[in-house]
Amino acid sequence: MTEDEMTLFINRLARLLTSSNDVDIRIDEFLTRDEVCDRLKVTRETLRKRIRSGEFPEAVKVAGQERWPTSLINQHIYKTNHHLTASRDLRNEARAAIEEAMA
């Protein structure tokens, strides 16, 4: 790997690690209700109940249709699975270290 390629790689990595958890239409997939159900292995009724109760994020409108950005689904999975906290904390520590190094 050349020095320029390494610099580009490090810059891209830093951008990824320091980006927010907001929806990014450049990288998110926008899933239909059936695709979300399939991915989470739940029925349409279970998904509907979880959305109504606030346990699952509501869809966004894309061309007038319900879609769930994969980032929202991933945030939900992290939020509801405490065993993933260690991984999230490590990522946040890495992000903070990179931001400090770049300052």
Defining traits:
103 residues; mainly alpha; HTH_17; Helix-turn-helix domain-containing protein
How is this structure best described in words?
The chain is mainly alpha-helical and 103 residues long. The chain has one domain (3-102). Helix content is 61%, strand content 10%. It has helices at 3-18, 33-40, 44-53, 70-80, 85-102, and strands at 30-31, 60-62, 65-69. Strands 1-3-2 form a three-stranded antiparallel β-sheet. A hairpin with a 2-residue loop joins strand 2 (60-62) and strand 3. It is elongated and about 50 Å long. 5% of the residues are buried. The mean pLDDT is 84. Residues 30-67 form the Helix-turn-helix domain. It comes from Endozoicomonas montiporae. This is Helix-turn-helix domain-containing protein.
| Proportion of residues in β-strands | 5-15%
Name the helicity range: 55-70%
Structural class: mainly alpha
Task: List how many beta strands DSSP finds.
Answer: 3
As laid out across the biggest beta sheet, the strand order is 1-3-2
- Biggest β-sheet strands, sense, barrel: 3 strands, antiparallel
Provide the gyration radius in Å: 17 Å
Our count of domains comes out at: 1
Instruction: Write the element-wise H/E pattern from the N-terminal end onward.
Output: HEHHEEHH
Distance between the termini: 26 Å
* Count of separate DSSP helical elements: 5
Oligomeric state of the chains in view? single chain
Q: What's the overall geometry?
A: elongated
Uncertain stretches: none
* Mean pLDDT rating: 84
Domain Helix-turn-helix: 30-67
Protein name: Helix-turn-helix domain-containing protein
Pfam family, one: HTH_17
InterPro entries: HTH_17
